[in-house]
Amino acid sequence: MGAGFSTFGAAVDKLGRVYSLQMYIWSAYCVAIFGPNGQPEDPGRFKEDPDMKKTGRFNSAIIVPIGTKCGGIQLDYKNNIYLGLSAFPLDHKPPFGFDKDEGYQACVGSVVKFKAEGGSIVKADKAPAGKPGIKLSRPFHGVVNEFFAENAERCYPELGCLGGDLNDGCICRQPMFQVDGWGRIFIPNALTCSVRIVDNEGNLIQKLGSYGNIDSRGGTEGKGPKIPLAWPQAVEKRKKAIEEREAKKSGTV
To answer: For the whole model, what pTM was predicted?
Structure first.
């Protein structure tokens, strides 16, 4: 809302409630909920925080604060909340060739699943006592920062490209992933030029795409990548039935 107040994604549940991932003050992010009538809901989290009181548009949020870069939000049928965050599971290993790549460390993150009740992402040394959640890490210029994601259940790595830090990109365009109703996650990664599809346990279902640009098209048939992707920053899954219906409307079938 307004110049500079970046909106990093929105999702709508089956009741018409809008989950908006956005700034509440400058460079501080949260997930706020607005009802079908356009009025903000009050999940009762962070209401007494001095910065939240300055917001004006709403006075509470369901996930707040978000202590690392973020981008993309989705819901499943149970209203579990999935956020794109600049962080990894503690045991994450980069794909082959990216283990010492500073661009990968700075710009790739994960999709993190939170329970429907919401939560927060804070530095590990500020984790709320006795709260359930998972630990996450983020290497950055040789330093590994650890975070605690309150009320989070699982982390699905390889989401990119997440911008926003000094010297590694602006925040104008963050990645957009997708989660279907049953919790399958479709994760784009602009740095690896691929899209990963995983189930809700994090098991790989399929990986699509490889580097594709004008220099990789090949001069003869059969050369070049099967599915060339130049900068896959966003992904959307569509049901075949929807595509068939649209085709019938257009008269192509």
So the answer is: 0.88
